[in-house]
């Protein structure tokens, strides 16, 4: 049985199998958790067990076999592809990027001596060499992406790792074999283990955690990235969270429903790059749910507006409009020019300073809420979150970070961000099955942060209120350990480096083929970038800066229907841009194919 338990009076007790109660032991004890669930230990107590003392409940599926089989398929596919490329004397996608492509291939193969090749290798199933990256992840069926498509739109809805999908499917079968036993007695300890695993993954997400490293003019070396994370991450962590929300002690009280902002603590929120307390993390169906939860917890009201920039996610503006209308607050959406003004485009650092200046100048002191995207959806900009959080602290404003693109990309998903709430999707760059997001909430804000769906856990503490929102499919959450294991086999730092270097090559390929540019320096992007489309590929009625969203749709449909190329086309400032994604399964040939497809569309319009 999977239920976890703690020995009385033993803080170091782990989570062994459930104790059984025989009928001759006297008066039986009542339910120990909330509702009528038969879990012997509360969710809060399970989350409080120290890492070294935690024992995972018995797992009814063979995760190791799932992950090992996927690794074997990828290695076999890589061997076939390497043989074919040697026989065909593989040409670079672009002569201008030949050297960079050669380095990328070495990194993808995990060659000894390639930058970052050793990170994370050998962590699954006793493997001694790094798991191949790139095209082999598709041909080796680690992803379900159709191999005949040019899929450079991972940033839209992600792409789930096959080991995660297979693990989720096996969990579904386990649940259906005996639903009462699974839901009533076994589910919660397994969800807790997933929360603990997710907290570790959020803490060690291998990407620059602070804007000055993120906005470097070129992808930093592995050594430089590590040094920047250690130094600047400490500064971000030491500053504390953006604002402290204090609410009433009683769940559902008026004070809890109307939290107030207090000055942030001077104590460090967490050690740089250190652990994230799993008790501060909840799993949710998607980032949209988390954003609504956080906005509902913010102290909005007359004279306490919500503030964000117009380049934020479109649905987020609607969430703020809805919440502010109910609270009698103003929703301030500061109009942000795009492309940015010339002075903000000279360097990545200049861009970061410009963005921070917008919050310095336009965010009202004492506002009820400030919101920033970790990575903007439409424009793919990696925002200087930690520096914006510092502004919010000085102005006494709680900060919500929409980190839908953060986990597995820019990282910094917890206290080091300086935020009050940090919401991230797991199905995008972390590639879990869909239906999974994570939210980190600063301890000071948890009393005011309540789930949108109230159920049995109400009144039993922060974690318990979120762990159960009714009977539904929890398999995506239960797949977290399998996804984490496969990602360890790839190596998180290595994946991050591969995607950054691939993005640089992709931009060079497109800019070289089209004679266009990017609206901001490459260092302002993370795993996605915008590249301007040549005027010839725009319908004649939309040329010379007169393009509309209809012209963007026309080109995107032509790529999809005529060339099997999946790539979003954005209309910004009267110009069309492709927003490319550099996922771990992409390779330079994908962007050469995109370049040729756009040129073919231009020829059709000539």
Automatic annotation (TrEMBL):
Keyword Acyltransferase among record annotations: no
Alphabetical UniProt keywords: Pyridoxal phosphate
Region of interest called Disordered, as start-end residue ranges on this chain: 1-21, 212-271
Comp. bias regions, Low complexity: 1-19, 216-244, 251-271
SUPFAM superfamilies found in the cross-reference section: PLP-dependent transferases
Domain of life from the UniProt record: Eukaryota
Database matches in InterPro entries: PyrdxlP-dep_Trfase, PyrdxlP-dep_Trfase_major
UniProt key word Transcription: no
Protein name, entry field: Uncharacterized protein
């Amino acid at each position: 049985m999977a239920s976890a338990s703690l020995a009385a009076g033993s803080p170091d007790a782990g989570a062994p199998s459930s104790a059984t109660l025989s009928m001759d032991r006297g008066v039986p004890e009542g339910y120990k958790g909330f509702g009528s669930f038969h879990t012997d230990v509360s969710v809060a107590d399970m989350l409080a067990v120290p890492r070294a003392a935690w024992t995972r409940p018995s797992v009814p599926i063979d995760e190791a076999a799932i992950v090992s089989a996927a690794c074997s398929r990828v290695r076999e596919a890589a061997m076939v592809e390497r043989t074919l490329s040697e026989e065909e004397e593989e040409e670079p996608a672009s002569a201008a990027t030949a050297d960079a492509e050669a380095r990328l291939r070495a990194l993808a193969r995990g060659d000894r001596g390639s930058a970052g090749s050793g990170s994370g290798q050998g962590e699954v199933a006793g493997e001694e060499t790094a798991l191949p990256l790139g095209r082999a992840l598709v041909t080796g069926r680690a992803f379900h992406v159709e191999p005949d498509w040019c899929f450079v739109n991972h940033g839209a809805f992600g792409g789930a790792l096959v080991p995660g999908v297979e693990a989720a499917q096996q969990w579904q079968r386990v649940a259906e074999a005996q639903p009462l036993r699974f839901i009533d007695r076994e589910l919660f300890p397994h969800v807790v283990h997933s929360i603990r695993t997710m907290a570790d993954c959020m803490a060690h997400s291998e990407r620059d955690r602070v804007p000055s490293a993120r906005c470097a003019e070129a992808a930093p070396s592995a050594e430089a990235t590590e040094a920047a994370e250690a130094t600047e991450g400490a500064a971000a962590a030491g500053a504390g969270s953006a604002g402290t929300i204090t609410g009433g002690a009683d769940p559902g009280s008026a004070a809890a429903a109307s939290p107030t902002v207090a000055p942030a603590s001077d104590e460090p929120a967490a050690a740089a790059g250190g652990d994230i307390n799993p008790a501060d993390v909840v799993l949710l169906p998607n980032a949209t749910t988390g954003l609504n939860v956080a906005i509902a917890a913010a102290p909005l009201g007359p004279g306490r507006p919500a503030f964000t920039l117009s380049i934020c996610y479109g649905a987020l503006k609607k969430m703020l409009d809805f919440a502010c209308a109910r609270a009698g607050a103003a929703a301030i959406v500061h109009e942000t020019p795009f492309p940015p003004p010339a002075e903000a485009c000279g360097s990545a650092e200049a861009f970061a300073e410009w963005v921070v200046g917008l919050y310095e100048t336009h965010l009202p002191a004492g506002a009820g809420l400030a919101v920033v995207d970790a990575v903007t959806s439409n424009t793919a900009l990696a925002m200087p979150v930690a520096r914006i959080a510092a502004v919010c602290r000085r102005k006494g404003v709680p900060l919500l970070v929409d980190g839908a693109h953060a986990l597995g990309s820019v990282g910094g998903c917890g206290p080091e961000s300086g935020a009050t709430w940090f919401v991230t999707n797991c199905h995008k760059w972390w590639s879990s099955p869909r239906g999974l997001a994570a939210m980190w909430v600063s301890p000071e804000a948890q009393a005011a942060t309540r789930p949108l769906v109230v159920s049995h856990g109400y009144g039993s503490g922060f974690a318990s209120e979120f762990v159960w929102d009714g009977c539904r499919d929890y398999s995506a959450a239960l797949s977290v350990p399998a996804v984490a294991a496969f990602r360890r086999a790839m190596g998180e730092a290595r994946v991050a480096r591969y995607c950054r270097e691939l993005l640089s090559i992709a931009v060079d390929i497109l800019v070289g083929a089209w004679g266009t540019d990017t609206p901001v320096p490459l260092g302002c992007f993370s795993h996605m970038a915008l590249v301007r489309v040549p005027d010839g590929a725009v319908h004649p009625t939309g040329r010379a800066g007169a393009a509309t969203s209809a012209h963007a749709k026309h080109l995107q449909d032509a790529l999809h229907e005529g060339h099997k190329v999946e790539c979003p086309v954005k209309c910004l400032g009267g110009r069309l841009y492709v927003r490319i994604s550099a996922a771990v399964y992409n390779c330079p040939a994908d962007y050469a194919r995109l370049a040729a497809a756009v040129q073919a569309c231009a020829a059709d319009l000539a």
